[in-house]
Amino acid sequence: MNSLPNQLSLLCPLLILMVPLAPIGLALLNTGLNRSRSAAQALLGGVCVMATAAVAYCVVGWSIEGFAGGAFHSVSLAGVSWNWIASQPLFLGGVRWNEPEACAVALQVFAVGLAALVPWGSGAERWRLGSACAATVLLAGFVYPVFAHWVWAGGWLAQLGAAFHLGNGFTDPGGAATMQMLGGLTALVVVWLLGARSGKFSGDGPPAAVPAHHIVYVLLGCMMALCGWFALNAAGAMLFAGADATALPRTVVNTMLCACGGLLATLLVTRLRFGKPDASLCANGWVAGLAASSAVAALVSPAAALFTGVVVGCLLPLVIEFMEVRCQIDDPSGGIAVHGFAGLWGLLACSFLRHAPAGQVLAQVVGIATLLGFLLPVIYLLYWLLNRIAPFRTHPEGDRIGMDLHELGAGAYPEFLVRNDEFLPR
To answer: To which H or E segment does residue 85 belong?
Structure first.
């Protein structure tokens, strides 16, 4: 981790105070994309998931992640020392609170919650709150910190440049891999284990449409997420890419351009395909642009940032449709594509849309392959075992009456008629 100049040591804590707007916006977006009969459980679950993630990370997660230059465990293979995991005390006992790693801890208390919100949104309307919190403990207490150590705390992915001359090693200044892609892959595992919502897929016909119950929440969440992403990318650039104050305006501009490119490209694609823009898909395009910006905002030119957002915005509706129609994956929030696919694209774009050192593309591919080939099976195994102990899927009664009444005993809108399933095929 890079040392912070005096002026940035004052700016970084201020930026971190804005970061919670990103997971708050994402929680609102997930809630709005649900049906009204599960809205309260969705938002309460978002708060609980963020709380569980923060506690798990502070109790045990950081001791596994550590910081660059701190104590770690390594394995020697083929004459190379592979830094695998940190060795720090529990309960943040090894944090030097007057050093830069303290800012990194503060940033990641919120960042790990953002990563955990992605699978929560994808498992909406059929995931038990208790088992979701248990799954979050595994994600925030083990999976996230292990990968974060490899990327941000001097682990073997960060050392690919020094050990194998692959550019600067795996680069992820804003968490496109550590938060976005990891969250998207976890969401994929959750959806596999949960199955689809009742009535979503039936017979040989197309998937049933389950419209968002409150598109205003969705769009408000997008606006709030933008503010949080400005801070997330700027603080990440300082802490994990060594950026100075002169680089922060470009990081903010590039974040905005990625989001704008994603939104406008999705708006155009849905307008051409459906005759009118689709508001929920446009919101997903906006967030997908933000997810991709986490990789590129601190590193590329404004033109490249806009191109990154446009590409992900053009492809996103097609990816979501392919997963739903062809793969029969029921993802109410679109988190698998919005965070997983967009994060993957951003990680690749940050290497070939700038003057990167030789081998940088290969370093990025190694990091992506690690997520897909190693961490995805590990997450699946851990969650499969947890599902056997604390079943993920709600009781059929929860499917029928909604998660609000089933888990909380009251609906989000008691004074209004809650829509039933008349839009689903019988």
So the answer is: strand 80-86
